[in-house]
Every structure is written in structure tokens, then in C-alpha cells.
Amino acid sequence: MTNVLELHGITKRFPGVLANDQICITLREGKILALLGENGAGKSTLMNILYGLYKPDEGKIMVRGKEVDIQGPNDAIAQGIGMVHQHFMLVPVMTVTENVMLGIEPTHNGIFLDKAKVSKRIREISDQYGLEVDPNAYIKDLPVGIQQRVEIIKVLYRHADILILDEPTAVLTPQEVEGLFKIIDTLIKSGKSIIFITHKLKEVLAVADDITVLRLGKVVGSIDPKEASSEILATMMVGRDVNLVVQKEPANPAGAVLVVEDLYVRDERQHMTVQGVSFDVRKGEVLGIAGVQGNGQTELVYALTGLLPTDAGSIQLLGESIRHASPRKILERGVAHIPEDRQRHGLILSFPIHDNMMLCTYYKQPFARGISLQPAPIFSNADELVKQYDVRTPNIYVNAGTLSGGNQQKVIVAREFSRPIELLIASQPTRGLDVGSIEYIHKQIIKKRDEGCGVLVVSSELDEILALSDRIAVMYKGQIMAIVDANTATKEQLGMLMAGVLPSETSNKN
Amino acid sequence: MTTTATPAPDAGKKENKSSALSQELLIPVLAVLTGLILGALVILASGENPLRAYGALFAGSFGTPGDLIEGIQSYFATGETRLLLRAIYPFTESLVTATPYIFAGLSVALGFRCGLFNIGAEGQFFIGALCSAFVGYSLSGLPMIIHLPLAILGGALGGAVWGMIPGYLKARFGAHEVVNTIMMNWIAFRLSDWLLSGPMKSSGFRPVTQNVLATAELPRFFPEPLRFNLGFFIALLVAYLVYWFLFKTTLGFEIRSVGANPDAAKYAGMNIIRNFVLVMFLAGGLAGLAGSAQVLGVDHWVGQGFSAGYGFDAIAIALLGKSHPAGVVLAALLFGFLRSGATDMQSIARIPIDIISIIQGVVIVFIAAPDIIRWLYRIRAKKAEDTVLTRGWGK
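^ Those are the sequences you sent over. The predicted structure of the assembly is below.
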């Protein structure tokens, strides 16, 4: 067995940070190496070095036993190294063919694009690796899973035999993940080697041949997946024992905090995306809203928090209608909102942490007297919250944009939990976060529930819904398919509901 | 990540602030420097001596040390102030030129802070000037202590209303402020043409207003021909007030939040639309004050083509000053010195005054595209992730 790729003693320093410290990894030919680590562990830096986007301060890269000097992506491609980025690098208004040929456009007579030739190659690649895709389809019309295939085709089109997949499952539905694993399998069978970057433990155990774990820029160790378990990997990744199961007592639900009846909401493009939704959230319970992304959950949450107007129906918070209330009014009545897109709604990235910590309460005592902001309480508030919620930052004066995703989310959680609340609305609360942060945020949400707060959790991660919820509502095409008890719900049952199949229909088929 | 010793609570802040400050200043300063160097090359290319040109520019904007020494000597020897006044004349004239720039620059900067592009400062300047002039010449019999503030307030209010109209149109109908402030400019120009040739025209032949009454004039500190007046210090005071308002009040916090991330501002319960109207009102008022200061402090009347494009230069000043009141003051001073010195450069060194426009234009290009400056001087970008293409200067 030969090693197609070896990295020896790679070190990369950024001002004030040792991003990679003497990292050595080995990729065997025709195998899958999983590179596991929390956000900020140095995975992306390492891969950017391999892809020529960064220059290492020390260390060498060996491809098929020969030392190579990679100055940029073109050198990497010449060495047969291809990268599938987490955030796709596709032009939405162009077709699959146009995207694939972008940058290496073949022509006839020097000026006319030879799309037919590219389409033919794409079909060949599709057939060979089971990457079904229509070369003439526009990217914007394709689901995320298919867009990812296009990215993989782009890499294969450039004759890569070492593929780097950066967090490939982060944006996929469970079914799409299955599809991706099949593709990976085909790629391996035809002799490709793959580096699979992730922080999801189950995926690693499912696909990897070798596992290397990074923490704080160093290799913690390598382990054979046969000997590994989720617990072992989590401990290696985080550096301490991690509770993968959310510890919680049975809920003690009391009266309803939030009652939603027959609610209709249009999205920003005037499509009716919430169509007659009714549910309630009671004190001291977590209602989870499951569903594949884009089935109206986002708009539902925006409507509940006053960010989108509603078309019809009613929203009652503790018996008072908030259907026409402004975001400020809703906020002041005790609704906390952990928004789905933390960088769009949750934070002002160009503002320091201390300002973000008072973003919703800046006009109140003690942060303001009249219109005059009071620096002392603003700073001490931020200092306390940073300590209490373990936000990893050099100080409270740096901009929120400099924090890692997990720490940004902690800032939001800290801010929202620091005022008296009756209802917590958490939308995709742990998206893109590492194991340590997920554990922490889940604990905080359950703590709020136990304090008697009503909690509405919206997530497209079924595991998260199952871990947190006391009751689960499944949304499909703007409607709630069913509300089930979390104790008796199964993944299969929820999966069917998420696909729009009602239990009665399944039994009819049987 | 973990800090071993906890430093004094403010240590991080100070460290942060000073490094941020030098970062903020670095690009503008280098941009101005590079602009001057390029200007020198242009002068050289046109067959003139750049040193002579810049010498004249400097003398025209600051005066010469020789004149100053001579002036002081003559003052102490004879008590005669004529030479001394002549020596400080260029410097004070520069400050006079900078005064409307400060107000108008603050106007555009305030808009930028809220994510609004106020191209209407020029129109607001005109309306402010006309309102101040009207109050200044039409109300007689008032003591200065009442008349002057009224005249200033009139100008501010006129500009504010002129600015608020596009603000309201944006808030109510979603009409873009860039389009509407430009339209309001043209309305202001034609309106002033009409007013100056009709209702507000003085008795003479020229389309100008009457002179404002002495009780509405901003006091001057020196005898004629020095026009240096209280307006400059009011401008500095207003710059401080804008700073305080933006960074030390809840209203300013809202404005900056709306400008930095309107989605997050809405999430936090801020009323974005109200902020748009408020900011356009205040920005209009500041531009109106620019007109006010020019009428009451310098010209004492308004005529056609009254503004030397202050409202448009203000955009460049706000950009150069990074929309920070202190930066705006510095940028306005720079523009004041350049503009004021250019006249001397033209008459003494025979370098066309337009060279100043070239320098200003180049500086603005560099401010708008700071990567050119970073590339020229091999400065690494702020974020570590951006260091890919730039080399050197790293730790």
C-alpha cells in the first residue's frame, strides 16, 4: 500500500495564533482519511496549505513520495489535488456545463466555446462515478445535494485523484448524505483517495478508513475507526469527556406561553410559505419543529418575532395578541430569539462584543440614562457574560466578527438569556458548531426550560430535535403534518412526516 | 486562547484602540502622500518644477515662516499689526475655506454611518444659505444675541427639511435616497435661481440678495481683509457634538447599527425607517449649517453659483475621513489648505489650479480602493485570512 500524500511537520503561524503546529498526516492510496476537529482546530488552514492558498512556515508536502512545492491552486490541481469547498463556488445563473468549464474553457478556432465537448466529458464522468446530473440545468434550479455533485464533477473534470471534501455534509439532508456516501464509495472503488473533513462523529465512523484528530492546531492522534467510538473521538477532539446525550429530566409543562392559530405568512418574495399553522408552546417544555430546510420554518419564526408581517391567523403570547406587534414590543414581552442566521440577524460583526451584548437592551437602564450610553455598566455586563458563558475571546473590545462561529453563538445565547424571558425561540441553534459548543448550548436551552420558560426549537437536524424536544411538530410545505410525543417518536416516523407522508397513508400502503 | 494574567480591564481596550487608530489612519495618510507624489509627477510631466509648485501651495495655505517672523518683529518694534496680519492671512483663509467643508463633510459622514448616501449636501447647502440670508437681512431691530442664533438656526432648519424630504420618501415609499437627493439638488438650484432673480433679489442689477444685517454676521477676529470668523469654531464644536451623538448616545447606537447591519437592527427592535428620516433630517441640517456659515461668516450675501461645490467635495471628505467626525475635520482641513493654497500656486508658480482636483481625485481613488495603497506599500490586510496575496510585514 502506497501513500499518495504525506504532510510532514507543517507549521503555520498567523499573528498571535499558531494555526498549525508540526502537523503530520498520511493519506493512503484508495482510502478515506477523516480529518476530525472542532472549529478552529486548524483543519481548514491545513487544507488551504495543501491547496496552495496559504504558504506553510515550515514542513513539506509529499505527493506520491516526491516532495512538491505548491504555490497556488493551479499547482495543486497539477498534482492531482482537488478541493470541494464547504461553501460552493458556483455561479447560480450559469449551467452545470458552464460552471464546470469555468477557468479552463475549451474553444474551437480559438474564440468559440466548445460546450459540447465539456458536456460530453460531464456525461462520461457522471456515468463512471454515478454522479447523475443534467449538464444543461442551471445551478440555481438544482437542490443543494446536486450542486455538490457539480462541485465534485468540477474536481474530477480537472483529473484530480486526491479529493479534499471540506465539511461536505453540513448543508445536506439525511437522504442527500446517504447519496454522498454512495458517491464517495464509487470514487474510492475507482482508485481515488479522499480527505474528508468534518466534525460529525457518526459520519466519520461510517465512512473513514483512517481517522486523524486535530485539536488547537496539533495532531492529537490517529485511530482506526474499528477501535473508535463516538465517545472516544469526542474526547480526543474536545480534550475532555463530552456528554453526547443531552441530560434532561421529564418536562413539567404548565399553562401555554405561546398559542398560534391558523397562521399564514408570506416570505419576502410574497410566496405563502406558512399555510395555516396551529400549535402551542407551554411553560417548561420544549416544542421542536422538525422539517427539511425551506418548508416554512424560517418564515414562521420571523412572523413570531415580528420580523415578517402575517397574512391571517392569531399569535397569542401569555394571552395577549402579538400578531401585529413590532419586534421591540415582542422582545419586551419576554421573547428571546436565537436567530437562524447568526451573522445576518444575531450580531453586528463590525461592532465590539460589548455592544453586541446589549444589542436588544441598549436603551434601558443601566446601559443608558436618557439618551446617554453608560460605558461602565456596558463593559461590566459584557465582562460578566463572557465569563459566565465561556466566550473565548481576548477581551470584550474586539469585534464580534473576529470570533469563531461557536463563540459568536455563545454571545447571542448570553445576550438573549441575560434578560427575563418567558419564551425562547431558538432557530438552528447549533448549526455549524463544534461538539463542545453544541453540548454547551443544548445544556443552556434545557436549563431555560427547567426554569419554566417555554422553548420553541427549530432545527433541520433530526438528532438535535430528538435530543431537546418534549413534543415534536413536523413541518412540510408550510403546514404542520403532525405533533408527536418526543418519547415515542422514532427517526423513521419523523423522516416520513418530513417527506410529507402521513402515518395513515403509510398504513394504507401496507 | 487562555490569558495567564488578567490585565487591567481597560488594557485590552486601549491596546485595541491604538492599533485600530493607526490602522485607520495609515491608509488615508498614505493615500494623501501618494496623491501628492502623483501630482508632482503630473506637474513634472507638464514641464514645471513640482518643488516650486508645492512651495507656492504651502505658502498659499500656511504662509511663509519668513513673513511670520517679519510680522512679529514689526509688531514688537512698532506695534504695527499690518505685516503680522498679512503673514497669518493665508493660514486663516485656509481655515475659512475648511469651515463649510467640515459641516458638509459631517453631513455626508452621518448619512454613511446609517447606510445612506447623501448626495444632496449641495442642495441642502444652498437652501441653508438662502434661509440664513433671509433671516439675516429681513429681521431688523434684534440684538445680535438673538438675531445671529436665529439666522444660523434658520439655515440649519432649511437644510434639514430639504434633507428630510428624500429621507421620508425612502421611508414611506422605498424611493432610493441617491436618486432623490440628486433631484432635490436640482430643485434647490433652480429654486435659488428664481429666488435670487425675483423675491429675494436686492435692489441692484445683479441677481444677489441684500447683505445680511451686522447683527446676523458671525463675528470676525481680525480686521479686513481677514475673514476668519466664529464659524470655524462652531464647526469644531458641531463635529464634537456629532461624535458624541454617534458614539455616546442610544440614538447614535441605533444609527450605527442600522448602517452596519439593518437586519440585526430590526431584530434588535430598532425602527429602521425612523432612523432613515432622522438621519436625513440631521444630515440636511449639517449641510444647511455649511451654507449658513458661508453666508453669515464670509460672504454676507448669496448669489448665483454661490457654492464652490462644497456639497460634492463633502462626499470625498467623508470618505477620506472614514465617516468619523475627527477624520472629517482633518480631511476638511486638508481640502481647505489645498483649495486655499491652490490660488497662490496658480498666480505665483503658474501651475493651473486644476492640479489640485487631480490630487484630490487620486486620493479618493486610493481611499475607495485601499488595496492599491496596501499593494504599493506592501501592507498586510487587517484579517489574517486576507494575507494570502500580500507578503512581508508579518510577525
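Chain A has three domains: 3-238, 246-334+423-510, 343-419. Residues 506-510 of chain A have pLDDT under 50 and may be disordered.

Shout if you want it in another format.
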